[in-house]
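Problem 12. The chain below contains 203 residues. Write out its predicted structure in token notation.
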Amino acid sequence: MINRDTPPEHKQPTGLWARLRRPSLTCSLGGLLIVGFVLGILFWGGFNTAMEATNTEGFCLSCHEMRDNVYPEYKETIHYTNRTGVRAVCSDCHVPKDWTYKMLRKIEASKEVWGKIIGTIDTREKFEAKRLELARREWKRMKAADSRECRNCHSLESMEAESQKQRARKQHEMAREDNMTCIDCHKGIAHHKPQGMTEADEE
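Solution.
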């Protein structure tokens, strides 16, 4: 009598994983690699294009919360209009350029999308009520990163101290000696300072 039971080591695996592991009958390995490579490039290109689109000034201003509140203040500053014609847009100050930190910031910003959906600051009154809290959160983030986004354009090492006004020169010398970071002194550089700030906020 013939034993029709197949030994366990010879049984064909079933399920999705087995199908994925089974060799293709119609495509060569090279063909599959080329298709995967092209699809990977398309995915990566699309992903990066979408990421960069969310870094534009137009995208930021698509939310009236930004357009009606902080944007008019920013337009009054030297970061918007200056003698050299170099303009810093929202993402230059609020989004890291390094890919890893940028992705972490984008994930963190998903909370802001939720705030937009539920209308956390959708009126001027709501915005002003939360302004100090929002500012403190951003100051904390910038300080923890050693004002990384500021340093993309500015650095104490590159400053020509002799060309600065006496007060600025003295402050920058103190900052260098005390390992201070840009946001320690420049909290009102692009937007009005919130009402209700304490001495601790000014430190």
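Discussion. The CA atoms of residues 119 and 126 lie 9 Å apart. Students who got a different answer should revisit the alignment rule from Section 12.3.
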